[in-house]
């Protein structure tokens, strides 16, 4: 077994370490979601926590880690008597992003269940993680149905497996930790709420701290065992402190004053439901125990709010999570009992500023003054933002037009459901019809590989004609592997929505560009809710640019859109060809995900020889491949040339005018375009 990087050797990351330790003290807090950029030691810190947890006593031979002092009465390996017990280290179980449902919850032997009527159950990862840690790296990339199963088990403390009338239940209480990079897509708000605490992490910008990170990592890579030995004393001290805090936890008193502050804070930040209040109460209690106190103070409540509320407060989908700390302090003062801030508590982190008490300053989290709301790219709404990485670069003098400053998007609006015609087989989502592992049963087929969803009636029909030949004599049905039938199910998939936005001088009128951005932002909101991937191509001056490669992070697309400058000629053909290249590559990467091309332009094509003819030929490439498309016609004024409509015909799609963008007709038209494309194909 490889030597893990010591928890106490992690440099900085105060909020992350504190949140993990509070869950180690009180698993009822509900786990931790760690959000941050790549390369910030998220996984390293989580994996290191496992070595700090106390050993667990288990019933010898029990596959479900039952506690000998209080065995699970419904344990599939039970009932347990007064047999031998054994002690082992707490486990950390990792759930891979590509895991199947059977791997997570366990699998039943369907053949034995049908033929013999026995519950032959093979435990899954939830059983292995019982009384330990279940770690999900890149939790935002996990399929939604697996996240639902995972969080339901975490909330109920048990896992249920139901297969065609055969039911198995076992205990599944674990510390749930998820890590994610927000640039790769967000979790749905309903799922965010199921994590007890959330922490934002970012790499330090202090040179000395970065030097120390590199120094320690190189020392660990050169000699993992020796490096761990040098930190063994700090690890043992922290392990003892966790044990002491666990023992003190039942004695901590959560007074009425602290409860009033918790309730007032949750109400002030307009969080939905009561889970936030309960999580804050448990977190504040754990903070007091961690600091070695038996009373909860205002400082504990404040720190609990900073950990438990940022991902629960009401916010627009593209707003960065966080709390207004001035508002938080005002609320606590108004409903407080004038208690002084608590002492930071005994001990502290190995770096002198580590976890301890309730006063750990946020690292990589909110600004000190929370009055300026942040955009998804981290800039303040009060100050001009630098163009984000990957945004279209200025092209002064390109094509004879001057660049204009970015225009603010108009207010977004709700769109109708957009769906690709036909039946796909793409990634799970909430948009178009598709064959999926979850949904309504539409038929049966022979399984390809492992059987996951049994179609009982079809299996019985396949086995029935062979019962006499197989010598059936008892009540049980004689079932062979060839008789098994997989249920085919129909659900919903996510799609790739690629926006090709004209940012030339002819589009630079502020009112027009604001309306265009508002329409694209509305479709981005819809893509966020329906679990789509999105991409953004812009064309202006003399060329086109992929401003945002296809991604699940629609807030990144919104940030690129907000910073989009305008000016120059209209290289329409270049924009369509760039979009064609992007879709070609994406078909190779993810052939099951079906695309929709949304071209936002007034249809004019300028610059170079025969620009209109070149644009028509480029559009023909998309039409030949059957790509569903819609052209948003941004032409205005008393004289309308109708060039966007001609472009739409060349694409095999439909055009909609700018005046129709704020109406529900735009989304309905996209849906009709997709249906028309499907019939033509």
Automatic annotation (TrEMBL):
Residues 385-395 have a biased composition (Pro residues). Pfam families: AAA_lid_2, Mg_chelatase, VWA_2. Gene3D superfamilies: Magnesium chelatase subunit I, C-Terminal domain, P-loop containing nucleotide triphosphate hydrolases, von Willebrand factor, type A domain. Residues 346-362 have a biased composition (Gly residues). Residues 332-342 have a biased composition (Acidic residues). Residues 332-447 are annotated as: Disordered. SUPFAM superfamilies: P-loop containing nucleoside triphosphate hydrolases, vWA-like. Keywords: ATP-binding, Nucleotide-binding. One of its GO terms (molecular function) is ATP binding. Residues 496-673 form the VWFA domain. Signal peptide: none annotated. InterPro entries: AAA+_ATPase, BchD/ChlD_VWA, ChlI/MoxR_AAA_lid, Cob_chelat_sub_put, Mg-chelatase_DI-like, Mg_chelatse_chII-like_cat_dom, P-loop_NTPase, VWF_A. Belongs to the Mg-chelatase subunits D/I family. This is Mg-protoporphyrin IX chelatase.
């Amino acid at each position: 077994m490889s030597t893990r990087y010591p928890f106490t050797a992690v440099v900085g990351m105060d909020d992350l370490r504190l949140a993990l330790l509070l869950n180690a003290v009180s698993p009822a807090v509900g786990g931790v979601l760690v959000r941050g950029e790549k390369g910030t030691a998220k996984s390293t810190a989580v994996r290191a926590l496992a070595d700090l947890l106390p050993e667990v006593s288990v019933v010898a031979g029990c596959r479900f880690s039952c506690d000998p002092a209080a065995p699970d009465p419904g344990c599939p390996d039970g009932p347990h008597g007064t047999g031998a017990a054994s002690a082992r280290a707490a486990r950390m179980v990792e759930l891979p992003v590509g895991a199947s449902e059977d791997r997570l919850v366990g699998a039943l032997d369907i053949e034995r269940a049908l033929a013999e009527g026995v519950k032959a159950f093979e435990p899954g990862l939830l059983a292995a993680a019982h009384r330990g840690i279940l770690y999900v790296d890149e939790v935002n990339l996990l399929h939604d149905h697996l996240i639902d199963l995972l969080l339901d088990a975490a909330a109920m403390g048990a896992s249920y497996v139901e297969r065609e009338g055969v039911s198995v239940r076992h205990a599944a209480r674990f510390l749930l930790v998820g890590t994610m990079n927000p640039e790769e897509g967000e979790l749905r708000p309903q799922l965010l709420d199921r994590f007890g605490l959330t922490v934002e992490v970012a790499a330090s910008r202090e040179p000395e701290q970065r030097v120390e990170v590199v120094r320690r990592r190189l020392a660990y890579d050169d000699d993992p065992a020796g490096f761990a030995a040098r930190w063994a004393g700090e690890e043992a001290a922290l392990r003892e402190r966790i044990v002491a805090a666990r023992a003190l936890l039942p004695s901590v008193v959560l007074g009425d004053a602290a409860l009033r502050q918790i309730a007032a804070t949750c109400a002030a930040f307009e969080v939905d439901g009561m889970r936030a209040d309960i999580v804050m109460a448990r977190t504040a209690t754990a903070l007091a125990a961690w600091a070695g106190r038996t009373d909860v103070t205002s400082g504990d409540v404040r720190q609990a709010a900073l950990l438990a509320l940022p991902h629960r407060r009401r916010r627009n989908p593209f707003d960065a999570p966080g709390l207004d700390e001035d508002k938080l302090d005002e609320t606590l003062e108004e409903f407080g009992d004038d208690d002084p801030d608590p002492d930071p508590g005994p001990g502290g982190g190995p770096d002198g500023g580590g976890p301890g008490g309730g006063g750990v300053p946020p690292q990589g989290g909110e600004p000190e003054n929370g009055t300026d709301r942040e955009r998804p790219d981290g800039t303040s709404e009060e100050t001009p933002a630098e163009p984000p990485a990957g945004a279209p670069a200025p092209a002064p003098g390109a094509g004879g037009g001057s660049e204009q400053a970015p225009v603010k998007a108009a207010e977004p609006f709700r769109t109708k459901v957009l769906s690709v015609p036909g039946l796909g087989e793409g990634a799970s989502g909430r948009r178009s019809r598709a064959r999926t592992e979850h949904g309504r049963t539409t038929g049966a087929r022979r399984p390809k590989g492992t059987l996951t969803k049994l179609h009982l009636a079809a299996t019985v029909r396949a086995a029935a004609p062979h019962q006499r030949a197989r010598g059936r004599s008892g009540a049980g049905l004689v079932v062979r592997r060839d008789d098994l039938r997989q249920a085919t199910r129909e659900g919903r998939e996510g799609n790739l929505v690629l926006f090709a936005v004209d940012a030339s001088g002819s589009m630079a009128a502020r009112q027009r560009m604001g309306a265009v951005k508002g329409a694209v932002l509305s479709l981005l909101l819809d893509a966020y809710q329906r679990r789509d991937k999105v991409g953004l191509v812009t064309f202006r001056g003399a060329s086109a640019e992929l401003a945002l490669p296809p991604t699940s992070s629609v807030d990144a697309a919104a940030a690129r859109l907000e910073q989009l400058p305008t000016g120059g000629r209209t290289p329409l053909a270049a924009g369509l060809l760039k979009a064609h290249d992007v879709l070609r590559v994406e078909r190779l990467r993810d052939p099951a995900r079906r695309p929709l091309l949304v071209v936002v332009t007034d249809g004019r094509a300028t610059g170079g020889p025969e620009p209109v003819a070149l644009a028509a030929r480029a559009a023909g490439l998309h039409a030949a491949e059957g790509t569903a498309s819609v052209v948003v016609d941004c032409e205005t004024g008393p004289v309308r040339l109708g060039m966007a409509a001609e472009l739409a015909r060349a694409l095999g799609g439909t055009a909609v005018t700018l005046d129709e963008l704020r109406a529900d007709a735009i989304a309905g038209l996209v849906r009709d375009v997709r249906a028309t494309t499907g019939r033509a194909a």
